Amino acid sequence: MNSVPNTGPLKGMKVIELAHIMAGPVAGLMLADMGADVIKVERPNGDDSRRFLPPDINGESAAFMMMNRNKRGIKLDLKSEAGRRALVRLIKQADCLIENYRYDTMEKMGLGYEELKKINPGLIYCEISGFGRTGPYRERGGFDLIAQGMSGLMAITGEGPGRPPVKVGAPVTDITAGILGAMGCAAAYAHKLKTGEGQRVDTSLFEAGIVHTYWQSAICFATGVSPGPMGSAHPLNAPYEAFQTADGWLNLGAANQTNWERMLKVIGAEHLKDDPRFSSNRERMQNRLALGEALTGYFRTNTTQAWLDALEAAGVPAGPVLSIDEMHHDPQAIARDMVPEVGHPVAGTVKTIGAPVKFHSTPGGVKRPAPVLGQHTAEVLREAGLSADEIAAITGD
Is 144 an active-site residue? Predict the structure, then answer.
């Protein structure tokens, strides 16, 4: 049985994750962090991310372990009648199913929503795809790079006009689609608890990219002009960007008038307050490049830490540009339990990224490591009511 204590706000919610690599597994991860019992169903050779090697820890894929902690894992051959029957038994008892297969794949296996709601009317059926299950692109596969380009994100990411298009460094549409899927599942679960009704939840990488263009879309709607890349700068406020120092970079958020004037005092450039090019945010945005050149000359005269200390003392928002490793060791990340350790049966003690939402009365968090392939198959099928002989026929034990 599941012996790991569960105190999250979604305790009692049972989720079947028929998803692979990233977007679907992120949705399962978010729900599992909040206390849902997420059962990851893998094919006999496992999720493709198990083969994202290197890096590995004792042969276990670091990528797979990151995306699948807090879940129980089972192995089923859905091409076999026994495997499909076992899955249907699980789905009958589930609150939610998450899938991120290509268009029509689940229907061809007899596992589409219209079929499954006949056996479980309360089922929440979450579909995460490249472009959604409706519209002219519904049959296209989903890849983060493609979605970033088509959503407009790559048009606003990069150093500036005339430079090659750049994608956001993280697979942001995959991750955001997973978060949106989890949000949709949680909302549908609240509806189910009130009415008993299930429903389809449908989101996509394309839409996940589009929602990151709120500011730039607002500009385009208002002006008819599509904004372009601005490096680290903000499309609506200045100064709000990264500046080079004597030994690195710092991010400065001194866009409102109060912080602008405080910052000028810190760097010894109070005369710029009277410069008509920089007198208000409107003028600073119109002369942003000249503003950047003027401020960089000051910031290059001292170290990042020296400036950060002075700016913090003056109440001006600023921060360092950390590497991933530096972020892992940042005291705030540690204090917020964003770099917890968990014991894995093969990899040993491994670090992972923590739960980003804290619940003070019903705490979630990282409770268990990612499963090894098929680790919980017998346990989960036994809970679903399968006999020892039925389980043995599926597992081969």
Answer: no
